[in-house]
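Allow me, if you will, to draw on your knowledge of protein folds for a short while. I have a record of one protein: its chain in single-letter code and its fold written as discrete structure tokens. Kindly check, if you would, that the fold set down in the tokens agrees with what the sequence suggests. Thank you for your consideration; the sequence and its tokens are set out here:
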Amino acid sequence: MAVRYQNRSHAGRILANHIRDSKCHCQSNSIVLGMPRGGVPVAYEVALELQLPFDVMLVKKIGAPEQPELAIGAVAGDNLTILDKSLIKSVGLSNHAIEILIDTKRHELNLQRLRYELDRPHPDLYKQDVILVDDGLATGTTMVAAIRAARSSRPNRIILAVPVAPPDTIKKINPMVDFIICPLQPENFHSVSEFYDNFPQTSDDEVKQILSHAG
């Protein structure tokens, strides 16, 4: 197995092969959702290879003010808000503070929709097999928020598909999803970029172009 990917498109094709060869048995009631921005070109290749519908998973993690990596909730499409009440209680946030955080993240999400010129509704995930794709995971906190958002739509299954992630992150996320596809799980992990030959920042324009092809 190759220990590096040429670029995000190559990673998407490799990932699609692993999904095809896995036991997750993705059927026609599946949809591939890419995490912006870097996950979108990967997810697009997965969808092309597997001949499945494709869209973007717009989600913003709500981090605790003093611990931004601690996801206490998330906002997603169609005015969906998910809150972890036990975590919120443990960090001692007031209702007013939570409302401010939600409004801030909702504003960021709306700006993202405008940048991508998305005038269609969020895809219906009810009873679908949802394949969540990113270009790799480090801590996985934003993906956790995406999983929570997707789960609230009552899909049939949630399948996480990423080219690379450290084993600890995979172990943390494993109970939250129904299936994980991750070809590279290196013990010696520093960043996602080290497993790509070519890993430039994915621009908003590139995301818009991919979404226009998919639409």
Notes: Strands lie at 30-34, 54-56, 59-64, 67-76, 80-83, 129-133, 157-161, 179-181. The radius of gyration is 17 Å. The domain at 60-115 is CATH 3.30.1310.20 (Ybab; Chain: A;).
